[in-house]
């Protein structure tokens, strides 16, 4: 049940019963997922006594998703794309329609546990917190799918696939994460708006959440993971319906974009050399994926430069000049002597 705010300026963040959250859910042909998982979202919001709204942005579904929401969840703010636009343009429509202090970016295939928000709100008492994510576990087992992200930068570029799990209690300062999973990211709306949301250069999918987290850190803010906040993930079929080669080309293009936006100096030079070596080797094997990705990347050079300039303006506004290498050092320093396992 929606709990309306009696005050245009809700209570300060970090206190149960005072925080306000806009849950933003992008949807594409996910009627069965919404039916299964929306009840858990409402249960978690009400358990934490939050002021909230739920926003679903439909990306031109043809499975009856719109009719389902209209019939069963009339309180949901439903936004509808007239054509399929992909993740970042779709979720941004909800991000910039949100009215509350925090935004939870949530995938339709994620189910929240009842106490999901309880341990997360305290992070926003710190003025430099950008956001926090929870642990994502398998829907049918306790196996952890997604956790805090460790930074790793080498001549091969920025690696975004290292997860870590603490083997000791979480310190009072929190566990840093290189970025927040787009599947369950609770973020400060004001900071997210300053970053202009998810960069739509990555549309239709892949790497937009990694880029957002890196930009947040480089803007002077922090991202965290809270191990006590648990959500469950059921495999989504949204992307798997695309042609496998198309998915690989888009993923490779977006990886190139991410590295060109955030690497500098010899790191970027080495990445470019490594990229061309890989491309040459793959072409000799008859694999055109990287070649096609590079051609697609070249068509993104103008919006890439626009993204770079917009972010540099934000850094100047915040009076910071952090590089991705500074962020790597900062995160590893925050982790300190904590024992953890990488997966």
Structure summarized in a few sentences:
The protein folds into 2 domains: 20-233, Spore Coat Polysaccharide Biosynthesis Protein SpsA, Chain A (Alpha-Beta Complex), CATH 3.90.550; 244-319. 38% of the residues lie in helices and 22% in strands.
Notable features of this structure?
2 domains; Spore Coat Polysaccharide Biosynthesis Protein SpsA, Chain A; three-stranded antiparallel β-sheet; alpha/beta; 22% strand; 343 residues; ten-stranded mixed β-sheet
Cα distance spanning the termini: 39 Å
Q: Approximately how much helix is present in the residues?
A: 25-40%
Number of domains: 2
Radius of gyration (CA) equals 20 Å
* Helix-strand topology string: EHEHEHEEEEEEEEEEHHEHHHHHE
Approximate shape:
globular
Helix count? 10
Which fold name is given in CATH as the topology of the largest domain?
Answer: Spore Coat Polysaccharide Biosynthesis Protein SpsA, Chain A
CATH architecture label name of the largest domain: Alpha-Beta Complex
Largest sheet properties: 10 strands, mixed
The CATH homologous superfamily of the largest domain: Spore Coat Polysaccharide Biosynthesis Protein SpsA, Chain A
Give the strand content. Answer: 15-25%
Q: What's the pLDDT, averaged over the residues?
A: 92
Highest CATH level, the class of the largest domain: Alpha Beta
Count of individual beta strands = 15
